[in-house]
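Customer escalation, tier 2.

The customer says the design service returned an amino acid string that "doesn't look like it belongs to this structure." They asked us to rerun it and document both sides in this ticket. The original structure tokens are below, unchanged.
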């Protein structure tokens, strides 16, 4: 939700009053509050994995992103927490891809390579990297295309027209 260029994130709880609860100003703050309560790592992150990925992709992940992946690699939240997009749509934050190498399901590199292969020209070979799967083939991604030092968080929608598939969630992780 954007009010006067300020990003606000929400958890939506459907109670009798229909109230929404404001919880964070940044995506990182939002994630930290969710994970303290609800998540756990499904797969211990193998030593050196993040550094290998950074070298292979020629990028530097945000420090807070690395901290969260180290704690919650492949973790999920049971699909109860939602955030509101700028257009008012609500989305579920369900967790993270598995960043370990050679994983069979929901692996970061396999997901990235499949998006590049099957979603051309929408998904570029460089610059956009998925980290959280969404329902129906959509992903939250880090977008380095405009800022290689501080990537945006974008929502990639796989079934929209070319040029309309990314929506900015936050200006930085």
């Amino acid at each position: 939700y954007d009010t006067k260029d300020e990003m606000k994130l929400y958890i939506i709880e459907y109670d009798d009053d229909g109230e929404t609860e404001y919880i964070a100003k940044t995506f990182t703050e939002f994630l930290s509050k969710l994970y303290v309560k609800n998540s756990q790592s499904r797969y211990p992150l193998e030593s050196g994995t993040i550094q290998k990925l950074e070298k292979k992709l020629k990028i530097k992940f945000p420090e807070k992103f690395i901290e969260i992946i180290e704690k919650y690699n492949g973790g999920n939240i049971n699909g109860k927490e939602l955030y509101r997009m700028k257009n008012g749509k609500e989305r579920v934050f369900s967790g993270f891809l598995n960043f370990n190498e050679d994983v069979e399901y929901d692996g970061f590199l396999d997901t990235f390579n499949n998006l590049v292969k099957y979603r051309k020209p929408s998904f570029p070979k460089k610059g956009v990297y998925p980290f959280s799967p969404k329902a129906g083939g959509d992903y939250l991604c880090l977008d380095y295309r405009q800022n290689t030092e501080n990537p945006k968080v974008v929502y990639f929608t796989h079934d929209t027209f070319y040029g309309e598939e990314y929506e900015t969630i936050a200006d930085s992780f």
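Tier 2 assessment: The sequence is consistent with the input. The chain has four helices and ten strands. The beta strands are 2-3, 6-7, 9-12, 20-24, 82-84, 90-92, 128-133, 139-143, 152-156, 166-170. Sent an explanation to the customer and offered a walkthrough call.
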